[in-house]
Amino acid sequence: MNSFDSIVPLCTFAGTLTVLGIGFIYNNSRISDLRSDVGGRISSLQELMDAKLARQEEMLLSKFAELDNRLTRIEAQLNLR
Length: 81
Prior knowledge:
Layout: H1 3-77
């Protein structure tokens, strides 16, 4: 048995570990890219929902003000206050 026969299994094992390590690093970078992309989409969706919520809140407040004005007029006409 020469020294070459004992080195070949070690080289095969080291090559396999190298390929697995490179694949792991590559996939990890892709996951990071995906995470940043999804995070960007979620933040833009959150901004959109905040704008819609602000618009709905403003509309609701104007409706309450309108109802308060109408109720005040009715109370004044009926001398309830």
